[in-house]
Specification:
It contains 10 helices and 10 strands. It has about 325 residues and is of the alpha/beta class.
Length: about 325
């Protein structure tokens, strides 16, 4: 699972086995390359392929507020060799962006593996005269016109958090959705965008180089990779808590023995301290969960995002 279209073959006779998986496994990422979900996929994919003993492919299918990738997985529901690198956008947010949801995030998927979660960051260019949340709020209010805020896409978790921020503080802001974080950062580097809400994973390298400034994280616990960045809970904004989880989900009906095999292989991968460290360097906090616990977690996320997504007015 080491590329968008290139598979990695493994030695041995596992490919000939009759039980799942008996052919290449495809992991669909619902975002462009370079984002938090993509980064997590590429950390766990290779070792997971080793455990499963099959050729693997990471395939990025962005668009449609992440529903293109999700629907691609559902279209392969009789296969169970096409899986989704599940995350908050297609499961917790996207269903509320449509007048008629394209799928049910619980009934239409088998949620098998929880990998971890990563906070989102309020980020500004260094030229912006704001280094704290109160200063950011004051700066936005003082602009006298709508302040553009960027995110990695229409309907992304960054988009929704920005809308929550706007509504909670009564700020005059307008969303600009990009096709991933990379083009958004290009605009920020060029001075064409001052403010964004983006996952910690994506902004860490630029923040460490001093090219962007992180104001706050939308988490309830400190990130080991950014210990000095304050949390929205510490700053008195608990309603802005929102973390982007990642996991592995299959179309509903994946056989129990296949789910068990996938979960066991992933659990072994995520028990490796080196993998945990690599995910931690990206801002992810891992936690063991059974498929039942992960399914309950997704259900709770779906419920908690309903009100803020609806209130944001965001539509696809």
């Amino acid at each position: 699972l080491l590329g968008m279209t290139a598979g990695l073959a493994f030695a041995g006779t596992a490919a000939a086995q009759a039980s799942w998986p008996n052919r290449p496994v495809k992991l669909i990422v619902t975002f462009p390359p370079g984002g938090a979900s993509d980064a997590a996929a590429r950390v766990v994919a290779g070792p997971l392929s080793d455990k499963l003993g099959q050729t693997g492919i990471v395939d990025n299918k962005p668009g449609g507020g992440t529903t293109i990738g999700a629907n691609f997985v559902l279209a392969a529901k009789d296969d169970y060799h096409t899986l989704m690198l599940s995350n908050s956008a297609p499961l917790s947010i996207a269903p509320y962006l449509f007048d008629k949801p394209p799928y049910d995030p619980i009934k239409d998927f088998s949620h098998v593996v929880y990998i971890g979660s990563v906070a989102n960051a309020f980020v500004v260019r260094p030229a912006v005269p704001a280094k704290t949340m109160p200063e950011l709020i004051t700066w936005i209010k003082g602009q006298g016109k709508p302040v553009p805020f960027g995110s990695g896409g229409q309907g992304s978790i960054g988009h929704i958090i920005g809308e929550m921020f706007k509504g909670e503080l009564g700020l005059n802001m307008e969303h600009i959705g990009y096709r991933g974080a990379a083009p958004m950062f290009q605009d920020m580097m060029a001075g064409q965008l001052d403010f964004a809400v983006v996952t910690l994973t994506e902004v860490l390298p630029l923040a460490k180089d001093g090219k962007l400034t992180m104001i706050a994280l939308t988490s309830t616990q400190k990130a080991p990779s950014a210990p000095d960045v304050p949390l929205v809970t510490d700053l008195g904004y608990p309603k802005l808590v929102a973390e982007n989880f990642v996991g592995i989900s299959a179309p509903a009906g994946m056989p129990a023995d296949a789910q068990a095999k996938l979960h066991k292989a992933a659990a072994e991968v995520l028990a490796d301290p080196k993998i945990v460290e690599r995910l931690g360097d990206l801002g992810f906090v891992t936690k063991p969960m059974s498929p039942a616990e992960f399914t309950a977690f997704v259900a709770s996320q779906v419920k908690s995002f309903q009100a803020p997504v609806k209130a944001s007015g965001a539509k696809l």
